[in-house]
Amino acid sequence: MTAEIAIINGSGIALAADSAVTISNHRVWKNANKLFSLTPENNIGVMIYGNAEHLGYGWDLILKCFKSSQQFKTFDNVKSCASAFIDFLNGDDIKSPEHESVNNLLLAVKLIESGLSSLKRKKKQNRKNEFEAYLESKIKEIKEHDDIFEEKVKLDKIIINSIHDIANDEADFYVSKKLAEKVFILTELSLNKKMSPVGGYTGVVFAGYGEKCLYPSLHAYVIDGTISGALRAWHLESAEYQAPERYSQIFAFAQADVANIFMRGIHVDCENVLFSQFERILAGRSAEFLKRAKFTEEEKVVEQKIQQRENEAIVSSLRSSFDAYIQNQFVSPIMKVVGALPKDEMAQMSEALVEITSLRRKIDSNLESVSGPVDVAVISKTEGFVWMKRKHYFDIELNKEYEVRLQEGVRRRLNDEK
Predict the structure, then answer these.
(1) SS3 per-residue string spanning the chain
(2) Is 38 exposed, middle or buried (0-12, 13-18, 19+ CB in 10 A)?
C-alpha cells in the first residue's frame, strides 16, 4: 500500500510519497519508487499508487518508455500530458494478451474470495445460499453503476470452467455451474464499468505546470488493466489553482485516513458511526411512538412515512451543521495557512503527512504498509521540478559515473534539440 500527498498553492505544488510495496499481503519491501519527474522539457511530476505493475510491466519502466516517446515535446497543460500517457498505454508498445487473461481470471478469484469472506452462517447449505445472495446483490449493485465504457466487451465463456474449479477449491461447500456462471456475469459486468469492486487497480497522478499555465494543476486517473485489448482507465479527480477561484488544496491518495484526521479533526469511521447511531436512535423513538399511539393501520402507515421524512430531515440538518463546523473550525484555518506557505514549507508539510501515516501504520497494523524513505519534490513555474528528498538503492558517492551519464544524457538532448 501507499500514502501520497499533494499540496497546491499559488507558488507551486509539493508531492510526497513513501517507499513501501506489499507483496502477497504478508511482506513489505521499502525501496519502491512512486514519484517521478516527467522530462526536462516539462514541469510535471507523476505519482503512482496501488498495483505496482500494468500487464506485467513495472510502472517505472512504462514511464521511462513514455518519456522516450515524448522527447522534446512540451505540453500546453497537465491534462494534455495525462491524455498523451493514456494514449501511450492504449498503443501497441504496452500489450500483453496473456496477462489480460490472467488478470480477468484473477478478478473473478478476488470476487469469489470477497464473497466467501462475507459469509456469517455455519451450515454449508446456508452458506451456499448466502453466497448466492451476495453474488445477486453485487450484480444488482454494479448494474446500477452508470459510468460505463463506450464499447461493451464480452469475456470468453471458456473461463467459467476455471471459475467453477477455483470456487470449489476455495469454498467449503459445493459451488454449482449455475453459481460459477453468476461469478462470470459479475466479472464481465465489473470489467465493463468504470469501477474496481475489489481493488487491484493503479492510481496515476499528474501534477505540475503546462507550458502555457501560470498556476499548477493536478489530474488523477485510475488504470485497471485491459479488456479485449482496450485500456480500462478513467478520470478520478482534478484540481486547478487559477483565477478567479484561486484556492489552496491538500490531496491524499491511497491511505488517506490519517491525513483526513489532520484536516477534519475526526476519523471518517467515527463520523459514520456517530450518524448511523443517531439514525438508529431516531428510528427507535419513532417505532416506540407508533407502538404506543392508538392509530388505525392506515393512519399508522401514514404516520410512519411522516416520521421517516422528519427523521431524515433532522439527520440532514445535523450533518450540514456538523460539516459547517468542521469546515470553519478545522479545514478553513489550515487551508488559509497552506495558501501562504513558501515552497520549502509545503515540501515539509507533505513529507510530515506521509511520515505520520507511516507512524500510524507501524502501530496499528501487522504490516507497515506505509514505510521507508519519503521522496519529496516541489514543482514551480520558476524552478520547475526540484527534488527535495530522493532515495537511491545505491550510494551516490560510490557511483559518480551515474551522475556523469545523467549529465551526458542532458547534453545530448540539448544538442539534438538544437
Answers:
(1) CCEEEEEEECCEEEEEECCCEEECCCEEECCCCCEEECCCCCEEEEEEEECCEECCEEHHHHHHHHHHHCCCCCCCCHHHHHHHHHHHHHCCCCCCHHHHHHHHHHHHHHHHHHHHHCCCCCCHHHHHHHHHHHHHHHHHHHHCCCCECCCCCCCCCCHHHHHHHHHHHHCCCCCCHHHHHHHHHHHHHHHHECCCCCCCCEEEEEEEECCCCCCCEEEEEEEEEEECCEEEEEEEEEEECCCCCCCCEEEEEECCHHHHHHHHCCCHHHHHHHHHHHHHHHHHHHHHHHHHCCCCHHHHHHHHHHHHHHHHHHHHHHHHHHHHHHHHHHHHHHHHHHCCCCHHHHHHHHHHHHHHHHHHHHHHCCCCCCCCCCEEEEEECCCEEEEEECCCCCCHHHCHHHHHHHHHHHHHHHHHHC
(2) buried
Identify the residue whose cell numbers are 497546491.
8
Q: Which residues of the chain have pLDDT under 70?
A: 24-26, 243-246, 409-410, 412-418
Cell matching residue 319: 450533518
Q: Look at residue 174 in the predicted model and tell me its pLDDT.
A: 87
pTM attached to this predicted model:
0.86
